C-alpha cells in the first residue's frame, strides 16, 4: 500500500516485494525480473535497463520501480517500457544537489516539471503513466498527494510535432529542393560504388512509404510482391497492440524503378545464401563488422534482423557524409535522419491536398489527432512566404 516513508532501509509496512524468477514479455521473450539488468531483443527493439544506475536512497523504491515496469513489460511494447524507465531516470537526474529521494511527492514532481524546458514538458505525461500504475499496484514510494496532483494537473502532450509545424531545417521535413538533391546524391553515390546497394534501397523506401525505421528493420525479403511491375511492398506495422510488428501490414505500390532496385537487392542477398524468410536488411550486411553479439536465437522470427537503433545508426553514418548542401543552413550539409523522411512523406501529402484521413492512413496512425501538424506546417509556410513577399 502507499504510505509515508519514514526510513531509508525498507518500506514502512515491512512487507517484502516478491518478483517472479522468470517472466515473459507480450511477445513471449523470457527474462528474469530479479536481475539488476533487464536485457532482451524484442522484434526490431533492443531493451537494456540497468537498475543499478537508478540512484535512490531507499532500496525499496528500486524494487517498486521493477514491479511497476514488470507489468508494462508483460503487456506493452519494449519501446514503451524503455520510455518509462528513461523518464524516471530523467526525473532522478534533475534532482542533482538535493536531498536523497526516499519518497515521490507532489512537490518532487512539481519541482521536476518546473525544471523542464518547454520542449520537454511532455515528459510529465509519461512520468504520470508510470507513477499512476505504481500507486495503483499499492506499491510503496509514491505518495497519495503525488497521484492526486498528477490527475489534476494538465499534462502537456509530446511536442515532437514542432519540427513539422515549423519546417525545422535540421530535424523537420526536407524542403522540395533538399528532397530532390538528396535523392540524386544517394543515387549517384550508389552508381559510383561509394555506398552499398542497401543504402539506396532503404533511401528509396523511406521516401516511398514514410514508415518508421523500426518498420524497415522488420522487413523480410518475402514482403516484396511481384518480380516485375507492379511491385507492392507489405510494410510491417509496429505501432499496434499486436504481439509483434509482423502481425499486421500496410501495402505500398512502388514505382517500377524502385521496385526493380529492391528486387536486385533481394536477388543479390539470395546469391549470398539468404532465403525468403531472411531480413531485407540483414545485420551481417548492414553492420560492416557484423553484430558484436548474437541477440536472438535461430528460432526467433527476427533472427538476423537489425535492431531499430542499429539500422538507424548505420544508415545515418553512411548517408550524412554524402548529404548535399542546403540553402536553409547557409549551404551546410543537409542533416539526414530516418524521421525526416516520415515527416516529408506526411508534409508532401498535405501539400498535394490529401485529407487528414488519407494522411493518417498513409502514416499508419490509428486516428486523426496526430496529423493536424502537417496542415499547421502548411499554414506556417504560407505565413512565412507572405511575410517575405
TrEMBL record:
The segment(s) forming the Tyr recombinase domain are: 169-389
Superkingdom of origin organism: Bacteria
- Write the record's keywords in alphabetical order, separated by commas: DNA recombination
Q: Matching Gene3D superfamilies, A to Z?
A: Intergrase catalytic core
Write down the CDD domains for this protein, in alphabetical order: DNA_BRE_C
* PROSITE patterns registered for this protein in UniProt: TYR_RECOMBINASE (PS51898)
Which SUPFAM superfamilies is this protein grouped with? DNA breaking-rejoining enzymes
Kindly name one Pfam family recorded for this protein: Phage_integrase
The molecule here is called Tyr recombinase domain-containing protein
Amino acid at each position: 500500500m502507499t504510505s509515508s516513508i519514514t526510513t531509508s532501509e525498507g518500506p514502512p509496512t515491512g512487507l517484502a516485494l516478491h518478483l517472479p524468477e522468470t517472466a515473459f514479455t507480450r511477445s513471449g521473450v523470457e527474462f528474469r525480473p530479479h536481475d539488476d539488468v533487464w536485457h532482451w531483443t524484442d522484434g526490431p527493439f533492443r531493451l537494456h535497463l540497468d537498475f543499478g544506475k537508478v540512484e535512490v536512497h531507499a532500496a525499496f523504491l528500486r524494487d517498486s520501480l521493477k514491479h511497476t515496469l514488470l507489468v508494462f513489460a508483460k503487456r506493452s511494447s519494449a519501446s514503451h517500457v524503455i520510455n518509462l524507465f528513461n523518464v524516471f531516470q530523467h526525473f532522478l537526474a534533475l534532482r542533482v544537489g538535493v536531498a536523497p529521494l526516499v519518497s515521490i511527492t507532489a512537490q518532487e514532481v512539481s519541482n521536476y516539471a518546473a525544471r523542464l524546458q518547454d520542449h520537454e514538458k511532455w515528459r510529465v505525461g509519461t512520468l504520470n503513466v508510470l507513477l499512476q500504475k505504481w500507486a495503483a499496484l499499492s506499491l510503496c514510494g509514491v505518495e497519495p498527494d503525488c497521484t492526486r496532483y498528477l490527475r489534476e494537473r494538465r499534462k502537456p502532450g509530446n511536442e515532437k510535432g514542432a519540427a513539422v509545424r515549423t519546417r525545422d531545417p535540421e530535424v523537420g521535413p526536407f524542403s522540395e529542393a533538399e528532397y530532390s538533391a538528396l535523392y540524386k546524391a544517394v543515387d549517384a553515390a550508389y552508381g559510383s560504388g561509394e555506398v552499398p546497394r542497401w543504402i539506396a534501397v532503404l533511401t528509396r523506401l523511406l521516401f516511398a512509404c514514410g514508415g518508421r525505421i523500426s518498420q524497415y528493420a522488420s522487413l523480410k525479403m518475402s514482403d516484396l510482391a511481384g518480380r516485375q511491375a507492379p511491385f507492392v511492398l507489405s510494410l510491417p506495422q509496429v505501432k499496434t497492440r499486436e504481439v509483434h510488428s509482423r502481425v499486421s501490414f500496410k501495402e505500398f505500390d512502388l514505382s517500377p524503378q524502385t521496385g526493380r532496385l529492391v528486387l536486385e537487392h533481394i536477388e543479390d542477398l539470395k546469391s549470398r545464401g539468404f532465403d525468403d524468410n531472411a531480413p531485407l536488411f540483414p545485420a551481417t550486411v548492414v553492420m560492416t563488422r557484423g553484430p558484436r553479439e548474437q541477440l536472438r536465437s535461430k528460432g526467433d522470427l527476427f533472427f538476423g534482423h537489425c535492431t531499430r537503433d542499429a539500422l538507424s545508426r548505420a544508415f545515418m553514418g553512411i548517408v550524412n557524409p554524402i548529404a548535399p548542401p542546403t540553402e536553409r543552413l547557409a549551404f551546410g550539409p543537409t542533416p539526414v535522419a530516418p524521421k525526416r523522411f516520415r515527416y516529408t512523406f506526411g508534409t508532401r501529402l498535405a501539400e498535394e491536398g490529401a485529407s487528414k484521413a488519407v494522411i493518417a492512413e498513409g502514416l499508419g496512425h490509428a486516428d486523426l489527432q496526430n496529423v493536424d501538424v502537417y496542415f499547421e506546417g502548411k499554414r506556417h509556410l504560407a505565413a512565412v512566404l507572405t511575410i517575405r513577399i
